[in-house]
Amino acid sequence: MNERAKQIAKGLLQIKAVKININRHFVWASGWNSPIYCDNRKTLSYPKIRKLIYTAFAEKINEKYSDCEIIAGVATGAIAHGVLVAEMLKKPFVYVRSSPKSHGMENLIEGELTENSKVVVIEDLVSTGGSSIAAIDAIREKGGRVLGMLAIFSYEFNAARENFTKANCELTTLCDYTTFLSEAIKCGYINAADTEIINNWRKSPETWKK
């Protein structure tokens, strides 16, 4: 566990961007029931954690993808973070819609994406990776060369690993389920009983009920 990941986990806990409720589960957009819910949009309201995140993204890009030419954000959660990263790195920015615009130019990608440009994609959250891979595919279909995807948080589901492997795209996260759970236990945010329930959920989230 690296120190930056721990700092981000602590920040998410402090601002309650990640919520845990064992007795009353959350229902995700996928229809899955879950005792945990992550809302990284909340980080935008807190300058300290916001800066920690976009600085970490920029450092990772300089470290892993120094030849990056364009930063792309996945709508809607990663648009603001992506803009902040692009500004810090002085790079052009585009964002990928979840579906094509229903009027005007009917764009799926907003902004100027030049053919064969080297793109790093910013995502706020990865669960199974389905919507993230869709954004990567959209960029590739428009001629962009995706170097990799960076996300704030991942639940570390096996399905996500498999999907990114199939898509031939490297996923790097600033924080993940393992780090978050460790920090949540340390600060007393959850107890041993809650930890067992959450770990059981993570083994088969698609079938889990409270």
Tell me the CATH topology: Rossmann fold
Please provide the count of β strands: 10
Major beta sheet, strand line-up: 7-6-5-8-9-10
Share of residues in helices? 40-55%
Q: Please indicate the count of domains.
A: 1
Describe this structure in words.
- By secondary structure, the chain is an alpha/beta fold.
- It has one domain: 3-Layer(aba) Sandwich (Rossmann fold), CATH 3.40.50.
- The protein is built from 7 helices and 10 strands.
- The protein has helices at 3-14, 47-64, 79-89, 130-141, 158-166, 177-186, 192-203; strands spanning 18-20, 26-27, 33-34, 36-38, 70-74, 93-96, 109-110, 118-126, 145-154, 171-176.
- The model has no long low-confidence stretch (mean pLDDT 92).
Task: Tell me the layout of helices and strands.
Layout: H1 3-14, E1 18-20, E2 26-27, E3 33-34, E4 36-38, H2 47-64, E5 70-74, H3 79-89, E6 93-96, E7 109-110, E8 118-126, H4 130-141, E9 145-154, H5 158-166, E10 171-176, H6 177-186, H7 192-203
Parallel strand pairs: 5-6, 5-8, 8-9, 9-10
Antiparallel strand pairs: 1-4, 2-3, 6-7
Helix pairs in contact: 1-2, 1-6, 2-3
